[in-house]
Automatic annotation (TrEMBL):
Keyword vocabulary terms for this entry: Cytoplasm, Redox-active center
The keyword NAD is assigned to this record: no
UniProt cross-references to Pfam families, sorted A to Z: Glutaredoxin (PF00462)
Gene: gb02118
PANTHER family: GLUTAREDOXIN
Annotated region (Disordered), positions in chain: 1-58
Protein name, as recorded: Glutaredoxin domain-containing protein
Length: 154
């Protein structure tokens, strides 16, 4: 049978010496927001100094890879796109964007159009998102497009 752990009532609890923090004021909240904005600005400047940031990295990947999937980390639609392409025998390169789509501006024929994520680039050109990829696949045109881009050898 289980034995109970004896309780010692003779030991007193130590009082709390820690005092709660005062509630935040509007001034302290404004300082926190200002500090966050300063950190974001520093990060942007560092990315520009390091060669253009994530947008330049995506442009280089679009030019080099026959098939590139650009999507958000953990996005279920990006996962479906990757699985569809892998099911056809294509191993797409994947670029995960942290959150903003602003880095993708200018990838569509040099225009300032921002593609919706996930975006599929085949042969250096934007094919579209999941809906467009599925439509091209169902119509039977996806395999010839992939062959022309050099992503399939069948």
């Amino acid at each position: 049978m289980y034995q109970a752990i004896p309780y010692s009532a003779s030991r007193a609890w130590s009082p709390r010496t820690h005092q709660p923090a005062p509630p935040p004021t509007m001034e302290s909240a404004a300082l926190v927001v200002e500090a966050a904005a300063d950190e974001e600005e520093k990060r942007r400047r560092q990315q520009q100094q390091q060669g253009g940031g994530a947008g330049e990295e995506v442009r280089r990947a679009v030019a080099e890879c026959p098939v590139l999937v650009v999507g958000r980390r953990g996005c279920c639609l990006s996962h479906v796109v990757k699985r569809l392409l892998q099911g056809l025998g294509v191993n797409p390169a994947v670029h995960e964007v942290a959150g903003g789509e602003a880095d993708l501006a200018g990838l569509v024929d040099g225009r300032d159009v921002v593609p919706a994520l996930p975006a599929v680039f085949v042969g250096g050109r934007l094919l579209g998102g999941l809906d467009r990829l599925m439509a091209v696949h169902i119509s039977g045109d996806l395999v010839p497009i992939l062959k022309d881009a050099g992503a399939l050898w069948l």
